Amino acid sequence: MHPALSVIIFTTASGAGYGLLALSGLFAAVDWLPRDGSAGGWAIGGALVLVTGGLLASTAHLGRPERAWRALSQWRTSWLSREGLLALATYGPALVFLAGWLRPEAVSWGPWGLLAAAAALLTVYATGKIYATLKPIPAWNNGLVVPGYLVLGGLGGMQILSLIMAATDQYHERFGWIVLLFATCAALVKHGYWRDIARAPSETGSATATGLGTGGERVRLLDAPHTTDNFVMREMGYRIARRHATRLRQICTSTLFAVPAMLALVSTLTDNWFGLVVATALGTASVAIGTLIERWLFFAEARHVVTAYYGTETV
Amino acid sequence: MTALPDSPSGRKLGLVIDLDICVGCHACAVNCKEWNFAGHSGPLTDWNSFSGTETRDGEDAGAWGVWFNRVHTFEVGDGPDSRTVHFPRSCLHCEDAACVTVCPTGASYKREEDGIVLVNADNCIGCKLCSWACPYGAREYDHTDGVMKKCTLCIDRIYNENLEEVDRVPACVSTCPAGARHFGDLGDPDSAVSVLVSERAGYDLMPELGYRPTNKYLPPRPRRDCADSEEVPVSLADLAERDDQAIGSGLLRWVDAVLSR
Lengths: 315, 261
What we know:
Distance between the termini of chain B: 85 Å
Number of helices of chain A: 10
CATH class of chain B: Alpha Beta
CATH topology of chain A: Formate dehydrogenase/DMSO reductase fold
Shape of chain B: elongated
Number of domains of chain A: 1
CATH class of chain A: Mainly Alpha
Order of helices and strands of chain A: HHHHHHHEHHH
Strand order of the largest sheet of chain B: 10-1-11
Structural class of chain B: alpha+beta
CATH architecture of chain B: 2-Layer Sandwich
CATH superfamily of chain A: Formate dehydrogenase/DMSO reductase domain
Largest sheet of chain A: none
Radius of gyration of chain B: 25 Å
Largest interface: A-B, 60 and 68 residues
Oligomer: heterodimer
């Protein structure tokens, strides 16, 4: 699949934003988000900035962005529509949560933090479902796709929250352990996913796509319908060399697991304010870069069954 | 709107494509483009048609554009038993059309009355998700209009009372010089196309994905092995040697002798 930059930026930024929002809501409920100081305001506000930036980037993927509001109408069947509605619905509790946090004497944030957390989680779940329900892309039609989106959103959010806590001098070593937990989950989910998609190819290929190979005959493309690439080949026929994929997977493992895990351990041990800020900032940068690469790879490695009409014998 | 119809009428208009007859001339694809350029989903725009330097709509050089019909040519089998099969590909107007259900706007829809899958270009936001959801590559994005386009089964022909009745078939069907394309109601078991499908063992493409396409393909008929009656294949090189009694073989030998002198 062609990796579209707007979609990669959208899922990376909004994913981390929703992760940050969900964690802020949950931590506020269990009193892990300090009431005094500015950390909570930065976290909730920062989450909304990331989410909004991501959503705006996603409209760059549309041919007709001025009609984007129409995408809110088909929630009964379309996960993309559900994602849009949930994304908008999240703003309600999130803004009340933020207002209540900044002006507790005027607005009671009470259950709104948890409601914002639930809406944020559901939005990322819907994002994952858009991909996971597409049967023509076997690599995406996989049970680990939704957990992948959720866990990377959580990791990104947790890293940013750690950075905010460190910068506002409210860091607690439990944040380091939670980063380590998310990084470990990310490594497990992504490695499980890569193992899954490397398994035996799907039964779909040029034989079933044409129906001409049901007796076991090989079906090879002899002559393509057109001399240059059409939309279908440009959008669905993107390919990445296995050599590059292997290297990028190694970079993902380093940036999404090894580096943040190591820095999280350093963060739990250090008492130096500056060292803590540098460690959490580097961890955040590492996860951001890692997520962008992981998303790019998620598209680039996924094969669409329509390629069976364009020379791929097994998809 | 993008929910599939609850109570389909039972009519399933579609195509039956005979892979035994198709000669791979691409006339269906060309006439489709011509009719639909000004049709329901028109225009079907092109880029880099006259030079390789128009980069505004394309990402690189080379002509490309929106077509609803594509003719692929496949080689099936190996060695002397292999055969060439021309394979026209277009929208199959599936019963479980995921391109419709994934659409967030309601621009994609499946008609209750005849099962035709259409795009309302006025509502489409050009998110391209329907093209990802279609295993058959039936949907193409029009960069100029910013919307998705697809085969309409020539809805503006098949119900068009301004046309002679004989012309009320999709453009690809009317133009096929070999008679390899048939149009009709596949929901009616007694229709000509349904009878054709049952007689010739018409089949679905990628049945394993469960989209239940309406269009059917008829397989190539078994090869007639004419050489069997001669026991061994006839080779031209030793035809004269084997056929001493034939009229003309003496003449050929004399010509050969004269020319070899």
